[in-house]
């Protein structure tokens, strides 16, 4: 019997049973954690944008929504590039809604079509109160952000919507217009500003309507920079030195814009800035170098019928661009100016300029026939 017990419990068998385990062996040293630099940059981008959200200088959403029978921007709308969930994901704190008109629209329809788009935007805001809020001033933009809404500003609108009438400018401003594109009219043409055009700019300064010079001729641009008491914008302009698109700006114009404390809003489009996020970053680098960090901003140009660079396909993608700029060594200060601070500065300056001008100047009653006839 003792022999049988010895056979069942030999030291060798006990050792073999001790080595059998359902758990993997514990290594002598713990596994080293491998850091992911790309994820770290993206986390930093989200954190920065949470404090300094994007003021998007151009959205074609109004015209895009005209063709949809039904939509819900708060729930999410796949038929467009911009909705409330994607703006929150992309940290969009302010959105300039373009009232531009499609090419080929009859000139006598410009006023009515602009008013229809303006009414549409106001209706969209009313129907999406949890995500959107109409804003006219820099202070109202900040208030909307503090309430967790995206501030929606009206403009740019095409100058043809004025129908050569300063009175219509005041009507549009009373309805909320903040930006007017000075191109495509007899008084802001390849030859520059006429006397009536200069009067329009003065009245824009008095009202607080910002001048948009994207697409304007060089002579018009030079004259507006000299005549305007408020900063001017280029809502969709990259660097012509990097990509020879007609709406992009040459270095001398960029330098002049920087000198006058204007703002170049670089578009996120494949045609103007290139097919990749790195191409867009190249334009931002160039504009910052030539015009200064206080004169560069962002223009998503979503829902405007444009192709967009890789990783920047809709309004949720801004963190990818900021991550690329962090990789290039942009400081938090310069990034805060790019995304939010520069637009706020231009809006505040236009508001202050308007209050001062209203104390000195009565509303203009000038007619184009009187000044340019």
Note down, in words, how this protein is organized.
Pfam families: Peptidase_M19. Residues 1-21 are annotated as: Disordered. InterPro entries: Metal_Hydrolase (IPR032466), Pept_M19 (IPR008257). The protein is of the alpha/beta class and 373 residues long. It has a single domain (50-368), classed as Metal-dependent hydrolases (TIM Barrel), CATH 3.20.20. The protein is 46% helix and 12% strand. It is built from 16 helices and twelve strands. The protein has helices at 2-8, 11-19, 37-51, 61-65, 84-89, 110-127, 138-146, 166-174, 195-207, 218-227, 251-259, 270-273, 277-291, 318-327, 332-360, 368-372; strands at 54-59, 92-97, 132-134, 150-154, 157-158, 179-181, 188-189, 192-193, 210-212, 233-234, 263-267, 296-299. The strands form four sheets. Strands 1-2-4-3 form a four-stranded parallel beta sheet, with helices on both faces. Helix 11 (251-259) links the parallel strand 10 and strand 11. Helix 3 (37-51) crosses helix 14, helix 8 runs parallel beside helix 9 and helix 9 crosses helix 15 (332-360). The longest helix has 29 residues, at 332-360. The radius of gyration is 28 Å and the shape is globular. The N and C termini lie far apart (129 Å). Residues 1-24 and 26-32 have low confidence and may be disordered.
